[in-house]
Amino acid sequence: MKTRLWKVTGTTVAMLVIMTCSAFASEGPGGMPAKEIVPVAELDEAGVSTVYEEEFDGIVDGFRTDETQVAEQAEAVAEEQAAPAPEPAPAPAQTQSYSQDDLEVLAHVLCGEAHTYPDEEQRYVGSVVLNRVKHRAYPNTIRGVVFQKGQYACTWDGNYYRQPTEANYRNAKWLLENGSILPANVVYQSKARQGSGTYVSTKYHKYCYY
């Protein structure tokens, strides 16, 4: 913004007052004061310095111009009304992949080892199977773990081949989607203590560390 400013030095205040009074002393037609135009040159000679078309930042002797205030207020309002950036959508929960064979084998071993036991007990049994799949000492598939020679009695006493209950399928599916509920190195499920120590004992089994 460009504004024309008149800078009046302290030594010329009295002269300006005299010139103004002189202007009003002369009356024009009808008793109205005559207008007197003072040439810029005379103002300069009188010690009144003039500044034309000077660029300035909207602040004059400590005061802000109205336009500067309006601009700053508009900017502040715009910032307040600006909508916050939307938060990124949370990543979808990842579920573990499994095959239909995994579901069938796990449901059958739950049926054979914990047929009508409470859900927690069934999930303990299934968790041992899942832990073994990831353990270096056992096969890396559910079928391989369940049918490993000498491991699960239900595979040779016939209980594995019974029809799994709805609860057996539900718990098998839950485990396949959510994973083991036992510590990773709990890989034994038996009536007696095995391995390096017992993690938890129930009225049905002991679940022991490798």
From TrEMBL:
InterPro entries cross-referenced by the UniProt entry: Cell_wall_hydrolase_SleB (IPR011105), SleB_dom1 (IPR042047)
Record keywords: Hydrolase, Signal
Keyword Ribosomal protein: no
Domain Cell wall hydrolase SleB: 118-185
Signal sequence segment: 1-25
Compositionally biased intervals (Low complexity): 72-84
GO MF, one example: hydrolase activity
Top-rank lineage group of the source organism: Bacteria
Region (Disordered): 72-97
UniProt cross-references to Pfam families, sorted A to Z: Hydrolase_2
Regions annotated as coiled coil: none
Name recorded for this polypeptide: Cell wall hydrolase
